[in-house]
Amino acid sequence: MSSRRSMRAKAPVKYTSASEGSDFEATKKKPARSKTSKATTTTPKKRTKKEQDPAEDAAATPPKKRTKKDPETLAAEHRDKAAAQDAKAAKASHKKTWEAWIEEHKLPDTDAALLAAEPARDESITQTDAGKKYGLKKEELVVLKHFEKKNPLHGNTMKLYLEDEVKVLGYRKLGVLDSGDGKEKEVLERGEEIWKEDHKNDPKDENPTTKSPSSPKSTAKPAKPKTPKQKWSAYIEAHTLADPASLKEEPANPINQSDCKPKYDLLPADLAVLPYFAKPNPKYGNTTKLFDESEVKTLAWRKAAVVGGVEEGEEGKVLEKGRELVEGRVKKKAEEKE
């Protein structure tokens, strides 16, 4: 008989009984409950009326009926509401009047909006200071001439305005926004009163500007002598042509606007007193301004004489002195190049 074990699987052994505490025990016995472990429950005690929350009592009571307002009180409220609406409508109307005035008096975005010379330091004000001191926005300053120069601090272009003109414009704005359009003198006086009331607590200025000419109490101060640059600016403003493009034919000896600056030291604002011929420029699609060079040369002599401090006198002597100054300047530049 072979001693090898049979490879046939045998059925698992089933135990008919299990020892106490064994994993094979079918059911475990529950521990006996002691008599003392039974929880005692008590019925909550009802609250009396005195112990109830007063908020609950208020919620339970019905709300009181609304009482009607006194007719006089209602009428006063109605009047106040109507007055507030009228004031709001008037304010909007005055604002439109001011915006229409700005649009009507806006200067063109050309050289005509530029001052010919830089104003003195004590007579000028920047665009930023005009907003801080007189409450004027840059969109409202477009009605005034200005001078553009490079800002030494930030390298951008800054605009300088004449403070007397800015002040009058600020008074006009306050007067129009307060009472609408009216007589010139009344609007400016009202605006000045409002501005002084708003700035009565401001620190005193060491160099106070003169009062507005609209004020009847203002005293006229002696006019300061004009500087040579201011005299030249006055000449340009007095002789500016209404229609400078009046030449019908191209000059025999033409010179364009760009060449006038390096050759004769004349700015576009200076050339506003001379007529020119408008010639279409097909290369850039714009118009070239052609001036008569003889007239440009005479204007350059006049500018050199006025800016050089030559006293007014005979026309020929003034121009002769200006010619000497121009030729001396040209000679000096030639020597510096050598």
Automatic annotation (TrEMBL):
Keyword set includes Nucleus: yes
Domain of life of the source: Eukaryota
Stretches assigned to the XPA C-terminal domain: 125-166
Location(s) in or outside the cell: Nucleus
Stretches the record annotates as Disordered: 1-96, 177-234
Cellular component GO terms, alphabetical: nucleus
Biased composition (Low complexity): 209-222
SUPFAM superfamilies xref list: Putative DNA-binding domain (SSF46955)
Keyword field: Nucleus, Zinc
Sequence ranges of Basic and acidic residues compositional bias: 69-83, 180-208
Coiled coil: none
Transmembrane helix found in the keyword field: no
Name of the protein described by the UniProt record: XPA C-terminal domain-containing protein
Lineage of the organism: Eukaryota, Fungi, Dikarya, Ascomycota, Pezizomycotina
